[in-house]
Amino acid sequence: MRLQTIAKREIKLGFRNSWTYTFLILLIIFTLAILLFQSGVPDAEGYTDMMGAMMNVTLYLLPLITLLLGGISTVTEKEDGHWQLLSTYGLSTYLFLWGKWIGLLLILITMIIFSFGLSGIITVIFGKDPGFSSFLFFFLFASLLAIVYLGLSIGIGAIAKNRWQALIIGIGIWFLTIVLWPTLLISFLTLLPYSSIKPTLEILTFLNPAELVRIFSMVKLDAGSVFGPEYLQWVTWADGPFGIPVFIAIISLWIITSITVV
Question: Residue 241: how many CB atoms within 10 A of its CB?
């Protein structure tokens, strides 16, 4: 019951926060721009230029929004004294953090549904129909990113001392896992003997939630060939019989570790 109360409180606070609507507007603008100006010519097994552009925009924008929204929201509770006040009622730290995670996740899911839905309606009005299956894929892809990065953002807010520190840490994690990751990955793998590249690549993929979600989503879209034939052979776990259980287990481990190890 306490968990539900905390989640409801977080939802009320979140929808009163101007940052929520700022991020929502950004999502709508970028989503609408991609849908209106990208073509839908198939590339690989139903994979289109529009889908690739949407995935890239979502991959760059949504983790950053999630890290900033969750991190600042959590650290603000400490700065304003609300966390200490709630602890006087016998509320455990972990229960509080899980309640915030649930509340913020519902806010993010609402933002994703509204931005994709509104952009889709406007796109249809202008005579372009991306298709329901594409929107369903983008929704699931964006939701998975929000789920795992929200856990990271809650952990950041719990350990940060102020909003500026939470902001810096959040941007740093986003830059490392999204922007800098391909360069670091290529540079590191070139130093290894060929026989060690495959197992190392699989382990490093599990250590980056954004890369894990991206590769798993592409393989389930039957568009894994865009990675190249050799790379595709290294990620066959995602399309194997244990692909979904392994994926769920790794994502759950990321969330639980991020929230509980504070």
Answer: 8
Tens digits of residue pLDDT in 245-256: 888 999 999 999
192: left (phi over 0), alpha (psi -120 to 50) or beta: beta
Half-sphere exposure of 239 (CA within 13 A, CB side): 15
As a whole number of angstroms, the distance between CA 76 and CA 93 comes to 15
Give strand pairing partners of 178. none
Kind and range of the H or E element at 183?
helix 181-189
Place of tokens 């991190």: 71
Give per-residue pLDDT as tens, 47-89.
Answer: 666 777 788 888 889 999 999 988 888 888 887 777 677 666 6
Q: Are 158 and 97 in contact (CB under 8 A)?
A: yes
Residue the block writes with tokens 């139903």: 46
**φ/ψ of residue 161, rounded to 5:** -90, -25
Asked whether the whole model's pTM tops 0.90, one would answer: no
Round to whole Å and give the CA distance between 76 and 81. 8
